[in-house]
Amino acid sequence: MLKELNSIFAIAFRDLTKFLRDRGRIIATFIFPLIFIGVLGGSLESNIGKSVGYNFLTFTFVGVLGQTLFQSTASGIISLIEDRENDFSQEMFVSPISRYSIILGKILGESMVAFMQVLGILVFGLIIGIPITIPQLISLIPVAIVICLFGGAFGIIVMANLNSQRLANQIFPFILFPQFFLAGVFNPIKDLPPYLYIFSRIAPMTYAVDFVRGVFYRGLPEYDKVVLYSPWVDLLVMSGMFVVFITIGTYLFVKNERNK
Amino acid sequence: MKHVIDVKHLVKQYNNSKERAVDDISFTVNEGEFFSLLGPNGAGKTTTISILTTTLSTTSGEVKIAGYDIDTQSTQIRQNIGVIFQKPSLDQNLTAEENIRLHAVLYGLYPFSPMYSMMPDSYKERVHELAELLDISKDLFKPIKTYSGGMKRKLEIVRSLMHNPKILFLDEPTTGLDPLSRRNLWEYLVDVRKREHTTIFLTTHYLEESENADQIAIINHGKIVMKGTPTEVKAHLVKGYVSIDVKPKDRSAVKAELTKMKVSFVEEEHIRIPVKDGEGARIVQSIKTPLTHLKVHTPSLEDAYLEIVEDTHAERT
To answer: Is A97 within 8 Å of chain B by CB?
Structure first.
């Protein structure tokens, strides 16, 4: 048991160390959110900000926080498919540790990576003048942990169903990209036509983004205009999805891992 | 002697394939032996080694590694084997020490710490021993990407031996190395064997890497087409002949002599006598008719190997 715990931490810290040493990857992971917050959020704020009745830059910023936490952990898990034929991950799969430990270590590691990225985005937010208070920052910590776990579980259910890297690279963007809009990362989704409403409420990212907003905007005048559900509802939905994703995903992954 | 690898009627057919990648192969490897699975690319070597190292399921057949069953006791097997993969299994952005540390923790040798300085003294000693052995003490804390290809391979081997595995699996370990690094690596492996008495299971498409093996199995299109010691394989494979000739007037005399000796021959431009290993000299010595021409032809093991690989190819197409 202790051995498995040690392995989980070793696998997790490997992910974090790899990320921190890879300058190219660090830059790449920041460019995307910066474009969406700075360019998209900034331009929308200037043009339609006044008519929606809340600051669009802040709206996008908070959305991107949730999206980054969710996506970064999810895609980190998916990379296990590629990794298992490359670098140290090959060693992980022939080492005498439980497959569950590999998955847990990977979720933990990718969550730490996502935290680092979000830290960068927060600094950027402060620089461009997003109003963030200390209590807000503190309340974001548990929120971030929940979303990382949720994103990890989503990654596992997707990974368990895609058994080749080529397939994963082709399909994963299609699973993820529409969720940006369905979840309302940078577009308001308070009012949606019925068909979009259904898709929006199926997309797991919706609840992750709404959860961050619910906590961030708590007690602020624009709360009702920005937030879809009470954070407790989001938490409940995410917990339900988490249990389903992680149970079925891990079961399928462990079962099919050697079966090619 | 005990069999540390026992493979019976192993078959592997990938889910999306109509053909069998490994088609009913059986072999055993004794403790301490150096076993070489030799074959061209796509013959089924990596499939076989993946199954033996627990990363791929079987379609049918029975496999026992170090006495443990591959289907039900994979954890025990994993604890008892070391694997050198075809693709490097080191993290490029981590240092040599970090790569070693990860391995040591996964095999339960030491508890994990995120920093080298926090690791137990026994670990530090071990790492420094290994570094000295490889002569990388200076570069121990530098990222792997600064190492040469040969150096990385050696580091992987050292690392895979840390948990004292009973069997070391090497999947085409010299692929991508220059000739000097290749030779270096082999000298190092010979050394390791002398010191640790580890059983070695090698896959390779280089024949010369198999010449020091205790046993060779040649695999092609998923089937083992030949197995035995290198000498046996050679004797079986190599079809040499002696070509002789005499003055035209002596031709019938020499033919009569050969027939009397019960030696088969073919009359072409010269007289060609197929011989097995070492037989040629005896035959030539017993011929009393004076010879005008003598040529001994011995194909190299390489020629012979290529011949059977092409043979089995021709059978299929």
So the answer is: yes
For residue B183, the distance in angstroms to the closest alpha carbon of chain A comes to: 24
Residue A23 contacts B where some CB pair is shorter than 8 Å: no
* Residue of A1, A6, A99, A253 to mutate for B, most B C-beta atoms under 10 A: A6
Q: Per-residue pLDDT averaged across B30-51, rounded? A: 91
Cβ–Cβ gap B108/A6 under 8 Å: yes
Closest-CA distance of chain B to residue A241, Å: 30
* Cross-chain Cβ contact B94/A14 below 8 Å: yes
pTM for this predicted structure: 0.81
User: Does ipTM exceed 0.85?
Assistant: no
Mean pLDDT value of segment A102-111: 92
pLDDT tens per residue across span B230-260: 888 877 776 778 888 888 888 888 888 888 8
Average pLDDT over residues B211-236: 86
pLDDT value of residue B317 = 45
CA distance B116 to B127: 10
